[in-house]
Design a protein that fits this description.
The protein has about 220 residues and is an alpha+beta fold. About 55% of the residues lie in helices and about 20% in strands. Helix 6 runs antiparallel to helix 7. The termini are far apart.
Length: about 220
């Protein structure tokens, strides 16, 4: 008697380990995109330091989403576990955070990066001029970076977050509070965070004025 194999079950088709293995070459392209944008940032830092005009960048950090974080985000936004769908719907797989001294520096760095001829801007959100209701301020941009491989070239989206030291400190504390309370933050803490955001913005404004008085 001959028997036929049963078709793969839905569970095996969505085997987490198989999905994670397929993500390895997929995420490698995003790592290369991060390498490209970080090289651009380092070149700007060294050039500005050499010119003696002052380096607007305090520090830089980058991150690449893990397979687990991709699964969580895909589930949250209703994105199927398909590489094409993930590449289309999740644009912050690779991210760079640039922390600057002053608000004007943040805009300057954004302009220096987004006006380079091989950088394509997909979106810019100005949460500095238009902060979120909770007080969050930062410049966000989704840019596309060409990555040249041995046999092909790919265009990779990278998220840029550019903010001041004060904005970054506030955002870090806010993130820790929301993580601790699993996003169900007591009302009084939400109010305190909003007040702290205003204080942080006031500090940015005062420090910028001091810088203007000293340096013109």
């Amino acid at each position: 008697m001959t028997t036929t194999s049963a078709p793969p079950s839905e569970e095996s088709a969505e085997d987490p380990s198989a999905f994670d293995r397929s993500l390895v070459p997929f995420l490698m392209n995003y790592k290369f995109g991060l390498d490209e944008i970080l090289t651009k940032i380092n070149i700007l830092r060294e050039e500005l330091a050499f010119r003696g005009t002052g380096n607007p960048i305090e520090h830089v950090s980058s991150r690449l989403k893990t397979p687990e974080s991709l699964r969580v985000k895909a589930a949250r936004i209703g994105c199927p576990l398909d590489l094409d769908a993930i590449g289309e719907q999740i644009v912050d797989i690779a991210g760079v955070r640039i922390v600057c001294s002053f608000i004007a520096d943040a805009y300057q760095v954004l302009d220096m990066l987004t006006t380079q001829p091989d950088v394509t801007v997909r979106a810019i959100k100005d949460y500095v001029a238009n902060p979120k209701p909770n007080g969050y301020r930062s410049l966000h941009a989704i840019v596309e970076i060409p990555v040249f491989l041995s046999e092909t070239a790919r265009t990779v989206p990278v998220e840029l977050q550019i903010r001041t030291v004060a904005m970054d400190f506030w955002a870090s504390v806010e993130h820790k509070i929301y993580y601790k309370y699993a996003k169900d933050v007591p009302g009084e803490l939400v109010e305190e965070l909003s007040a702290a955001a205003r204080v942080a913005h006031d500090l940015d404004t005062r420090m910028a004025e001091l810088h203007r008085i000293v340096h013109g």
